[in-house]
Amino acid sequence: MMTLQEFKTKYINDLGHLYPKEECLSILQIICEDLLHWSRTDFLIRDREKINHLEEEIILRSLHQLLQSTPVQYITGIAHFYGHTFEVNQHTLIPRQETEELVDLVLREIKSLSCPAMIDLGTGSGCIGLSIKVERKDCAMSLLDISSEALQVARSNASKLAAQVDFFQEDILSCKALPGSYDIIISNPPYVRELEKEEIHDNVLKYEPHSALFVDDNDALVFYRKILKLAQSALRKDGKVFFEINQYLPEQMKQLAESLGFESKLYRDINQNWRMIKCWKA
Ligand code: GLN
After folding, report:
1. What's the mean pLDDT in 12-25?
2. Is the CB of 190 under 6 A from ligand 1?
């Protein structure tokens, strides 16, 4: 039997070629908290304790998956986002920290509105739309995705959060109109260009759904163009569209918005990268 301290060392040694030391430790911490249901304090103070057989097996099995670059959230089946626990699997992206900033931005925008009608396009696990719905019970929230598997995950998350929302399975690129009219349209669509693949780690590249991530180098804004066109008729008076965007394409985003009759404002994320845009009819 090994002690927790020995496992910490093992994770750092075995995963050191994939992740920095601190991240190896936080991955083990996630395994202990989310799979073994330890408290944060357990992880900090149980160093000398021997780990029981069953737990040892889980920690070693997880290590095996981690060595194949499986993201820890797909091992535990959950991701933490905006203070909630979301179920995720290989049909949904793992929510990113930057996307919490999009949620914040939208929540600030709707402070002065009562009962806003909203839709989250390409919702995946539902993390954006559901986090907003939990904060603002009065809003009418719809979640839309092309993937029935993703929508299944979003439904399960909605029911765990007791969030009453509507679901739509649609392909944004081929749909002729959105299912309703909205005060706020939100989307974090695929925006990573093939040429950016080199920057991307194996854990993302090998495991996360490519249909949620990648776009053609020659038409990187295809989803934004289509959504803004749909928004021309689906936005209510004073309505707004909020997007997460590719950090390398802020100017192109502004130009696209302008060419389709929208004014816009860009926002940086916590890492100072251009990450969000708000668009409204000029
Ligand atoms: N920000 C995500 C990444 O780093 C991409 C999300 C998206 O394509 N919408 O991979």
Report:
1. 97
2. yes
